[in-house]
Amino acid sequence: MSLKKEINLLYVDDESILHKTFKPTMEMLTGFKVDSAQSGMQALDMIENTSYDTIISDYDMPGMNGLELLKIIRGRGNDIPYIIFTGKSSEEVVIEALNSGVDFYLLKEAEIDNICSELKRKIPPLVEERIIKITQSEKREAMQDLIDHSPDSAFLLNADKKIITANRGGRDFINSFSNSINTDITGMSFYDILPHQIAEIKSSSTDKAAEEGREAICYEEYMGKRYKIYITPHYNIEGELHYISYFQRALKKGEKKEGDPAQSISLDIKLRHYKDNLAAVQFPLTADIAAAIIFALSSGPKTIIDLCDITLSSSPNITSRLKILREKNIVLKDDEEYRLSVTGSIIADKIKGFIISINRKWHEPYKEAEESDYGEDETSYFIRNKSDAQAIIRSTILTTILLALNEDMMSRYLLRDITGSSSVALSPKIAWLKEKALIDEKEHEYCLTRKGRIVATHLEEYILSSAVIYKNSSFWTGHSLDWMPDFAKDTFYELIHAEVHYNSPDEIVSRGDIHKDHILEPKYLHGVSDYSLLCLPAVSMPRICRHHNCEFIISKDGAEDESELKEFIEDIDEDIKSFLKVHISEFPHTFSIIVTDKYFEMKLMTDNCRFFDTIEYLVSTSPEACMWGERLFQYYKSKSVPYKINSEKSTE
């Protein structure tokens, strides 16, 4: 452990001349902050109002000498490091000082440089040791508080496996085996108060955790009930076993031992995609040069020379990162310039949103222009402020905690289950998130702060957008995406459940029932693209005969070129014709979608826009994907006009 705080000293001496000379010299040579008092009584008043790390006191002072001051301080239960200055080198004074609890003494007659050097060397270890002791004490108090308020059965055991304390649930558990136990169980072992067989199981688990020196999670089953047990050994600063916390939770009926009972399907999906795409999610943000390239290219195409100037990196470093980014289809090359691909721009936007959410000053009123008002060059802003975002993405525990708490409030033990980590690993992560004002603790459960919820939402969007891109990377790489509106890019993560399908003979046969359930039966069917004209009669006719709505958006060119469309509409009976609506709109010819309330399908042009790919297409039955497709349909519908047949219907 290394001290990161400024050390604050109190210097006590009745000689005013020393306050004018020794105090400033000590501050200059040691780097410590020094306050001064000219008497023992003044020192006691200052100690009451200010927290000091060490006291340096003269021995020989009128009214109250340095050792008398120390005895009063120790009598108040204050174990602050204490150093005596004395002009007397007699053995009696030295022995009295050390017996009174002085940490060490220095002679006033020594050179001031030597005195400051000695103080600079000896004070930090004393302060550090005291901080560790205080931390251990605070941990013990916090553990006691946690046990007292735990909804589970909880015990605190000493190094000899004797019970120090038990909460109400623990006492009720013990009394369930014997109604005659009404005495205080403090100082007893499990063997003293439980049936031998059960006591043996518990003692064996406790011994194993103590021997291994780390937290143990195990399962016990007796009296028709199953329990999940958390046993954690805690050590003092000398590395000796100090106490053991023992929590047991009764498993609910049907709850699997290895399961995470409080995880919703939504959380499970987020965590699975995060872990499945871990390297892909981490690289664009945690690789510093790659991240800087992405930030730079998000403002427009750049040459290698431009990127070297912006990132302050060498040409070989830039070239190697560009190669990786091109392999991941984040960056494309046009002649001598590099630019972000569409999927690369999605990743860049999500990373930038994530960084902005962490660094925004949430205590100030929100400004609409805040996300673009960086007060400096945009690329420099993201390069300079990415460290906290990197820390979260690098840590699977931090990321998992934020994803989990974005679902609901959770206890430390549930977070430990979900993250798969020990208390030792979890505690500093929770402390870091608290320090960053991302989480808060309420009644022994953790929840996201307002800032934390926004940060977690941006984190989710980045992770899920990356997963959408990487799990179907060949599909996105092989097709044109330049048509995609900004709102569709922003909600790209909603395609997380979409899968690539192929129009192979086997799949066509196997998807017959799906076509009926997801195309013919839904309440509405919407389509965009001239390509959909080829299947318009086959898809729409069975639906409108059932009085189910169909709406298609086509281009003006498509409407003029397709005489078959006109003939098809003219041939529809008047009593069902209202169930088919066709609109004309301006839209890119590089994509085609069909969307219902139960089904989403998207086909794309190849990346060179030479032909429409009818073999490979994206499919999903998730509500999120259907909503994504429906918003796309409504976007182009808002720019459309109804399709009208100009000529009258011919008769024979």
UniProtKB/TrEMBL annotation:
It comes from the Archaea. PANTHER family: RESPONSE REGULATORY DOMAIN-CONTAINING PROTEIN, STRESS RESPONSE REGULATOR PROTEIN 1. Residues 8-123 form the Response regulatory domain. The keyword Protein transport does not apply. This is Response regulator receiver protein. Pfam families: FilR1_middle, Response_reg. The keyword Iron-sulfur does not apply. It comes from Methanoplanus limicola DSM 2279. Keywords: Phosphoprotein. One of its GO terms (biological process) is phosphorelay signal transduction system. PROSITE patterns: RESPONSE_REGULATORY (PS50110). The modification 4-aspartylphosphate is found at D58. InterPro entries: Bact_response_regulator, CheY-like_superfamily, FilR1_middle_dom, PAS-like_dom_sf, Sig_transdc_resp-reg_receiver, WH_DNA-bd_sf.
